[in-house]
Design goal:
Largest sheet: 8 strands, mixed
Shape: globular
Number of helices: 9
Number of domains: 2
Structural class: alpha+beta
Order of helices and strands: EEEEEEHEHHHEEEHHHHEEHEE
CATH topology of the largest domain: Ribosomal Protein S5, domain 2
Strand content: 25-35%
CATH class of the largest domain: Alpha Beta
Number of strands: 14
Helix content: 25-40%
CATH architecture of the largest domain: 2-Layer Sandwich
Distance between the termini: 18 Å
Bound molecules: adenosine-5'-diphosphate, ligand DP6, cobalt (II) ion
């Protein structure tokens, strides 16, 4: 028996990934840029055991279906040249399937734990490529702080890497509108957006340029540019989703309420920008000195977690 435990943190995209060019290899249409978060993470233990007759998967103490996990473990088994089945036990310190990127921390932690337990010693880049096969957003969660996922053109060239740290004291406020599971998973909805949204080609063209602009804005420590690009990438992704067939949005009334509050904050001179993922929850990007004022200007009654840049995936 060989075992390893890894922790990986979630990341929130400032420039979004939405849509696969190659679903089997998990190659995205566009590059994306993210911030790995300190306060949300997944711990996963993988044990390869020659006595097992099938893979087993437990999440937060409950037995789960293994189809997705087994397909991922097959990649690891192929790399390591082993046939042994595995016991996977995972704990999410983030709501599952709520649009807070549990699939990112999950597959980054699984990539590191499973490859280590299988005796592989992968480079961060190879780990990033492996994590990509489990969930696109996981590609970036191998790295701490800011990361860019280069879309690439094949398996070898589609990976993430860390971006230089900004001198800005970036903070992210996670405003919980609904911690429950989303009505449609990211995977299914992004495929439908690609297939049916007339806005999708425009999204691809604009978002790729936005990823490069974000790298420049981060290097220049230009917070208003970083914020504008962040809010616009999210808005454009949700516009493409809204224009799909059938028309759909993850937004709930409180999502819009918080977004309007953020716009009012800016009119009042507060540097705050909103970004929403595949779910109704809102993340607000701001700077440390403004956190208290942003919180005070939010609608009452919503749970808010203030977080900052978190570390890279690591073995425990
Ligand atoms: P999210 O917004 O949370 O990333 P997704 O729809 O992208 O939502 O992914 C949710 C799916 O990710 C879950 O249904 C499950 O299949 C998988 N997942 C979440 N947490 C874990 C975990 N700790 N280990 C393995 N898979 C996980
Ligand atoms: C809106 O990585 O969850 O959070 O690759 O199918 O597993 P799969 O989807 P997933 O999609 C994330 C979409 C997003 C934007 C982002 O994280 O870049
Ligand atoms: Co996800």
């Amino acid at each position: 028996m060989t075992t390893a435990t890894a922790r990986a943190h979630t990341n929130i995209a400032l420039i979004k990934y939405w849509g696969k060019k190659d679903a089997a290899l998990m190659l995205p249409y566009t590059s994306s840029v993210s911030l790995t978060l300190a306060d949300f993470y997944t711990d996963t233990t993988v044990t390869f055991d020659a006595d097992l007759t099938e893979d087993r998967f437990e999440l937060d103490g409950r037995s789960q279906p293994t189809t997705k996990i087994s397909a991922f473990l097959d990649q690891v088994r192929a790399l390591a040249g082993t046939k042994a089945y595995a016991q996977v036990a995972s704990a999410n310190h983030v709501p599952t399937a709520a649009g807070l990127a549990s699939s990112a921390s999950a597959y980054a932690a699984l990539a590191l734990a499973a490859s280590s337990a299988a005796g592989l010693n992968l480079t961060p880049r190879a780990l990033s490529r492996l994590a990509r096969r489990g969930s696109g957003s996981a590609t970036r969660s191998i790295f701490g702080g800011l990361a860019i996922w280069h879309r690439g053109t094949d398996d070898a060239s589609s990976y993430a890497e860390a971006l230089p740290a900004t001198t800005l004291p970036l903070r992210m406020l996670v405003v919980m509108v609904d911690a429950g599971p989303k009505p449609i998973g990211s995977r299914q909805l992004m495929a439908n957006t690609v297939a049916t949204s007339p806005y999708y080609p425009a999204w691809v063209e604009h978002n790729e340029a936005a990823a490069q602009a974000m790298v420049q804005a981060l290097a220049a420590n230009d917070f208003s540019k970083i914020g504008e690009l962040t809010e616009e990438s999210s808005a454009q992704m949700h516009a493409a989703i809204l224009a799909s067939h059938p028309a759909f949005t993850y937004f709930q009334p409180a999502t819009i309420e918080v977004w309007h509050a953020v716009q009012a904050m800016r009119e009042a001179g507060l540097p705050a920008y909103a970004t929403m993922d595949a779910g109704p929850n809102v993340k607000i990007l701001t700077l440390a000195p403004y956190v208290a004022a942003v919180k005070a200007a939010l609608p009452a009654g919503l749970t808010v977690t203030t977080t900052a840049a978190g570390p890279a995936a690591r073995l425990l």
